[in-house]
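S.,

As promised, the pyridoxal-5'-phosphate run. Input:
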Amino acid sequence: MSQDYPKRPTAAFIDLDALAFNFQSAKQFIGPDPAYMAVVKADAYGHGAVRCAQRLEREGVDWFGVATLEEGTALRDAEIRNPILLLGGIWPGQESLAVSLDLTPAVFRLDQAELLDDVARKMDRIAKIHVKIDTGMGRLGIRIEDVSRLAGHLSALTNIEVEGLMTHFAAADSLSESDFTQLQMARFAEAVAVFASYRIDPKYITLANSPGAVAYPESRSNLVRLGGVLYGLGGDILPDGIDKPDLRPIMAVTSEITLVKSIPIGESIGYGRTFTAERDSIIATVPIGYHDGLPRSLSNQGRVIINGEFAPLAGRISMDWTTVDVTDIPGVTVGDRVTIIGSDGGSEIRAEEIAGMLGTISYEITCGFSSRVPRTFLESGADL
Ligand SMILES: *Cc1c(COP(=O)(O)O)cnc(C)c1O
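Predicted complex:
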């Protein structure tokens, strides 16, 4: 039952024009030669995968990358036609759905390829795969010393096409790790050569994520896999001190004040009594909590913007509510807009700022806004 009635005013606004700007800006910076994969896993890092993919497809993105079959299926249900790479591969039993929906799995175990080969043969199809090589990330991918054995087995499978070879950087965002990134590139080149010795010459050779594509031109190869830069999150995932594409944040999260109260000096606020007023204070209560994705660890550290001015969080963030000290902002009233991420009156809070306070990265912040926070998509100034 999704009836139209007034909703809690906590919402996220996704600027699809800024998303398109970021893609074009990244493409101009990186160059016209590689194909471009937009990584829209995890609901496009919290920004809404279907709507982001629809816009990016119109902007000329070639590929989409998702984590799971479910995420790929959601894009196909929305009539996304571009090729889609399942970055996390598939689980046993998902082969026929992957083949029939034209979802291309990353493969990093022989049994995955064998199951796909069996299923594809029964369907009278050729299953395309991208083989993932572990050159130093240590997570998914086959280790370099196992490449030859796998390539030999794969060359014997009749209903598999190795359309891509891929690897993933562990630390391309940090220039102090550039020796390691170079080592990953060298190991990957070795793996590509081993495949070639088995007459496997895939169409796509792909290494670069956002920081790789921006900071290491030699890693661009013929397909770059961009996530963070598309969402404007260059502030903490690109290395400092290098040229970067111009990027704009695309997410704003706002709410409205539900209650304003005056409290006397000495009174405490919230669970655990972690904030005590050191002066007579004015406290505003805002309907956003840690279930919405405002991390509880931001309590007493973070800030929001009200009427163009920063206001500090006061007391613990609870599941559904947050309290803010608005003593220094004149005339705050019920219904005033509260900007959690975004800009208002010349003041701005970016996901990178919140992440920095918490010792994490901006991706975890944008991903963290839950489904209780409805996404509204803005395009050409219009609210669709
Ligand atoms: C998430 C992911 C990417 C995108 O990384 P960004 O840093 O967001 O550009 C690229 N490749 C793989 C394998 C990934 O898992």
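The pocket of pyridoxal-5'-phosphate is lined by residues 39, 41, 87, 168, 209-210, 225-228, 237 (CB under 6 Å). Residues 178-197 form the longest helix (20 residues).

- D.
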